[in-house]
UniProtKB/TrEMBL annotation:
It comes from Adiantum capillus-veneris (Maidenhair fern). Residues 191-362 form the Uracil-DNA glycosylase-like domain. Keywords: DNA damage, DNA repair, DNA-binding, Hydrolase, Nucleus. GO terms for cellular component: nucleus. This is Uracil-DNA glycosylase-like domain-containing protein. Residues 68-84 have a biased composition (Basic and acidic residues).
Length: 381
């Protein structure tokens, strides 16, 4: 022990000698030792211990170790989570990574390096090991707000895009039907789901009217239990008026999907404990005749701009909801999911419920359950 103490003292003396040229002169003048340190430098004396971690009051943020790194065991940092620090201290701590530092993949700080993991970006939803991931069906704190933020950011990124003929009119229900869309998120969303169902884009009599994916107006009112006013797009196609929940035309795809959910699970609450339904692209494209034009038929350059923003939004949605399965409703959505190259989830597709698909016009729900079972998703009896 004496040897160890001597090494610490020697290290401290060397550190003081490096402070200034005056320290060198001082050591020559006092060959038998330094005079008493000034009061304001007393805390740097070699015999002073490093400040203890529990002397600081921090707000903790979640942290994931790198795959090769074991999470340190320190009971004094168990107030919320084991993790990096993002708050200010009541007493100035040793140098920690700043909030502006790039994340260093679990690299520890130079001071107290066995105690202090590096920071993760602020507002990122990151879990500390698999034991901290909520079970399927459980609420993820902050997830609803994050889903809302994703939707609003996607609105901003798609705003101002222009499209050439044959597209003559574009609707974005995340703008004019935003109230109902946010109701949908806040009432049914925010849970860790087993399966994320991803549709292509809004149908003219579904989400284009109500702001809810596959949102047939009847099912939005009854199955979802939502109500509210819907505004009008800036430019309204004369053959495609927006009537909101007063729309009398049926969205067949929505009737099939939500009808199956109601028959299979009994209630929206039971369904949304296992599933979340999301549209990859929120835009509705119409030709001069009023005919619906799907994203896969857009000009390649125009489609690329849309897909760049939509891929980012989908990746963020998956990172928040942490599903085991991400399933495209139709081939286009499945391809876009694969383009995102998400690790740790099983990707597949189910038959689109559109009446334009002849195979979907009989026993769609039964066929979809068979497809989900082949993917490994068991719905139970």
């Amino acid at each position: 022990m004496a040897g160890c103490n001597a090494e610490i003292v020697d290290a401290g003396v060397k550190k003081k000698r490096r402070r200034s040229h005056a320290s060198e002169l001082c050591s020559r003048k006092y060959p038998h030792g330094y005079p008493q340190l000034p009061q304001d430098e007393a805390e740097f004396a070699p015999s002073s211990p490093l400040p203890k971690l529990d002397s600081f009051a921090f707000t903790l943020t979640r942290y994931i170790p790198t795959p090769t790194e074991e999470r340190p065991e320190h009971p004094e940092i168990e107030q919320e989570d084991r993790g990096g620090f993002e708050g200010s201290a009541t007493k100035k701590p040793p140098k920690f990574p700043s909030e502006c530092d790039e994340p260093r993949g679990g690299k520890l700080s130079d001071v107290h390096e066995s105690l202090v993991p590096s920071l993760k970006p602020r507002n990122a939803i990151v879990f500390c090991g698999e034991d901290a991931v909520p079970d399927f069906g459980e609420i993820i704190p902050g997830a609803c707000d994050a889903l809302v933020e994703i939707a609003l950011k996607l609105v901003a990124e798609l705003d101002g895009l222009s499209f050439k003929a044959p597209v003559s009119c574009v609707y974005n229900p995340l703008v004019y039907a935003q109230d109902l869309h946010l109701q949908y998120i806040r009432k049914h969303g925010g849970r860790r789901v087993e399966t994320l169902l991803v549709g292509m884009n809004p149908g003219p009599f579904g989400m284009a009217q109500t702001g809810v994916p596959f949102g047939d107006s009847k099912f939005v009112r009854t199955f979802h239990g939502l109500s509210g006013e819907v505004n009008h797009p800036k430019v309204v196609h004369p053959k495609r008026p927006v009537l909101g929940l007063d729309c009398t035309r049926s969205e067949v795809s929505g009737q099939r999907l939500w009808g199956w959910a109601q028959d299979r699970f009994g209630s929206a609450t039971a369904f949304f404990k296992r599933f979340w339904v999301y549209n990859y692209c929120p835009l509705v494209f119409m030709e001069a005749s009023g005919k619906n034009r799907t994203p896969d038929k857009l000009n390649p350059a125009e489609r690329a701009k849309i897909e760049l923003a939509c891929n980012e939004a989908l990746i963020k949605t998956i990172s928040i909801l942490r599903p085991a399965f991400v399933v495209g409703v139709g081939k286009y959505a499945a391809v876009k999911i694969q383009d995102c190259n998400i690790a740790g989830v099983k990707v597949g597709d189910i038959m689109h419920p559109s009446p334009a698909n002849p195979q979907a016009n009989k026993d769609w729900g039964k066929k979809v359950e068979e497809q989900l079972l082949k993917l490994g998703l068991e719905l139970g009896k």
